[in-house]
Amino acid sequence: QVQLQESGPGLVKPSQTLSLTCSVSGDSISSADYYWTWIRQHPGKGLDWIGYIYYSGSTYYNPSLKSRLSISLDTSKNQFSLHLYAVTAADTAVYYCVRQILVVSAINYFDSWGQGRQVTVSS
Amino acid sequence: DIQMTQSPSSLSASIGDRVTFTCRASESISSYLNWYQQRPGKAPKVLIYATTNLQGGVPSRFSGGGYGTEFTLTISSLQPEDFATYYCQQSYNTPYTFGQGTKLEIK
């Protein structure tokens, strides 16, 4: 059974870079069956899709974050990472790494989630 | 972006009740609609994908329906573990978007 675990600083200063890593066990991030995705949840709010990376290295980012965002893969470690640049207090949230299963066409869904990493942006 | 709107935003119900949540999309998304359950302090968990398909391990009291712009999630007989927040999400196109959630509370 796949497990995902986020790691990284829980406190980031404004204007700096938020970096999180997701370690995947029980499955290979080199599989063509999934996107590897980041989703965040602001305090007391709903869920916001950040972006994904595919095993090939191709990415798709939420246009609202695209100018500040980078998602990368490390297949040797079976990990993928999120880098969000020039953060502000509005980036304070719980960040989830998620496996997105690709069934067929537009049938896809978020089937396995990490436990979430609280990240606070504050000086 | 496709906007997803859920109603009601909160709902009080009793054990054994039948409840239905509604999710509306700002444009047609065919049947590309997923439902998630989130308990406090936990990550969301998928219940139903592509409108009607029950994820493995999810109890059969959960069911989904709809097409186009209007969708429903029904719980046929509420159990104590069902009190949580429910989110819909469209996978029709990127950026993927979620509804704001419906919080189900014990009456």
Can you walk me through this structure?
The complex is a heterodimer of chains A (123) and B (107). Chain A is mainly beta and 123 residues long. Chain A has no helices and eleven strands. In chain A, strands 2, 4, 5, 6, 9, 10 and 11 form a seven-stranded mixed β-sheet that branches. A four-stranded antiparallel β-sheet of chain A has the order 1-3-8-7, with no helix packed on it. The mean pLDDT of chain A is 97. Chain B is globular and about 35 Å long. Chain B has 107 residues and is an all-beta fold. Classes of the chains: A mainly beta (123), B mainly beta (107).
Q: Whole-number average pLDDT of chain A?
A: 97
Q: Tally the helices of chain B: what do you get?
A: 0
Largest sheet of chain B: 7 strands, mixed
- Report the count of strand segments of chain A: 11
Q: How would you characterize the largest beta sheet of chain A? A: 7 strands, mixed
Strand content of chain A: over 45%
Helix and strand composition category of chain B = mainly beta
Give helix and strand order of chain B, one letter per element, not per position. EEEEEEEEEEE
Helix content of chain A: under 10%
In angstroms, what is the radius of gyration of chain A? 14 Å
Overall spatial form of chain B: globular
Low-confidence stretches of chain B: none
| Global outline of chain A | globular
Seen as an oligomer or otherwise, the chain set is heterodimer
Helix-strand category of chain A: mainly beta
Name its key features:
heterodimer, A: 123 residues, mainly beta, 11 strands, globular, B: 107 residues, four-stranded antiparallel beta sheet
In terms of topology, how is this protein built?
The complex is a heterodimer of chains A (123) and B (107).
Chain A: E1 3-7, E2 11-12, E3 18-25, E4 34-41, E5 47-54, E6 59-61, E7 69-74, E8 79-84, E9 93-104, E10 107-113, E11 117-121
Parallel strand pairs in A: 2-11
Antiparallel strand pairs in A: 1-3, 3-8, 4-5, 4-9, 5-6, 7-8, 9-10, 9-11
Chain B: E1 4-7, E2 10-13, E3 19-25, E4 33-38, E5 45-49, E6 53-54, E7 62-67, E8 70-75, E9 85-90, E10 97-98, E11 102-106
